[in-house]
Amino acid sequence: MKYNIAVIAGDGIGPEVVQETVKVLNLVGEKFGHRFDYQYLLAGGCAIDKLGTPLPEETLEICRKSDAVLLGAVGGPKWDDPTAKIRPEQALLGLRGALGLYCNLRPAVLYAPLKDASPLKESIIANGIDVLVVRELTGGIYFGERGLTTDNGIPAAYDTEKYNEEEVRRIAKIGFESAMKRGKKITSVDKANILESSRLWRRVVEEVATGYPEVELSHLYIDNAAMQMVKDPTQFDVIVTSNLFGDILSDEASMVTGSIGMLPSASLGENSFGMYEPIHGSAPDIAGKGIANPLATILSGAMMLRNSFKLEDEAQVIEKAVLGVLEDGYRTGDIMSEGMKLVGTTEIGKLVMEKIEKGM
Ligand code: IPM
Ligand code: MG
Which residues form a coiled coil (predicted)? Predict the structure, then answer.
């Protein structure tokens, strides 16, 4: 089979981590007899520099026509003026919104060899961590009405958190479907003691739950959930939550598993099309030095094979290879610990490829 992949390498370390991922995908394609065709597109800060807009129409058009999008990272200090009208992050929100990618899957797994990289005590993580954050991605405060106003003559600003029942229902269903394939436990995170939108969220999640009697549902307020994530992350299986709470909780979940440099993500819509990206940002401080960790992007490539192309065996080959490299003691700087072997971006990419070659 032939698959068309739109590639948005983006800014900072984006191009470096994407390059390793493309190499890994090509190798897997070669081994299993698939062809991946790539179209490299501009979005983010580099698009602002070249074309004056973070998300050029052409980029969006080609993404729409492709089978999946692989994205590195966008943004950086050069474009970071919060008062600027044009910002790289608008590319991400524009892609998510325009492509209808309302479901963001962010699996946070503590790989056994990375236990030392977790900031949590051994006693807390002894049983490992395996959480899937299901984040709503095209609603809530990210997309609600916002603006500048005045309060009795004092300059003010507002953003709106709004959800309709349908938006909650479709993401809740994915949460429950995911739980059915995993540990059959789901935690819905909201702030229903304060927010009207959270009360609607909770009511709809409970409705959806009646269709999944085997799944154990619990509700947590976001403040408590943030605390539980460091107190005992092993209690979680699937977490389903809103756009903003999911943004925050997924960063926290990534850190307790050792490094934000390890976590992949999939942004999905109604059909098999999806956008795949590491959850880390563009890390401008280490860009161009060849030391960035490409594993989150490589693992995002595996999620692409699984979710968009239904190539489960191929996805697992990549995941096993990544685990194998970690088991062999190779580490990039972000996950380095005593006694391990420090390697750079292309070296760890090459090690993953060697594992794939050997594993087949
Ligand atoms: C993420 C990022 C983005 C978000 C930013 C860069 C707009 O933090 O994907 O988690 O807030 O969604
Ligand atoms: Mg985030």
Answer: none
Neighbours of 347 (CB within 10 A): 16
- The closest residue, in CA terms, to atom 12 on ligand 1 is 247
| pLDDT tens column, 318-356 | 999 999 999 999 999 999 999 999 999 999 999 999 999
Atom of ligand 1 nearest to the CA of 93: 7
Instruction: Please give the pLDDT value at position 82.
Output: 83
Q: Which domains does the chain have, with CATH numbers?
A: 1-101+270-360 (3.40.718.10), 119-256 (3.40.718.10)
Burial of 230 (0-12, 13-18, 19+ CB in 10 A): middle
Record the tokens describing residue 64, joined without a space. 């729409």
Residue 75 CA, closest ligand 1 atom number: 6
The Cα angle at residue 57 between residues 55 and 63, in degrees rounded to 5: 85
Question: What is the per-residue DSSP string for 4-21?
Answer: EEEEEEESTTHHHHHHHH
Task: Kindly give the parts of the chain with pLDDT less than 70.
Answer: 360
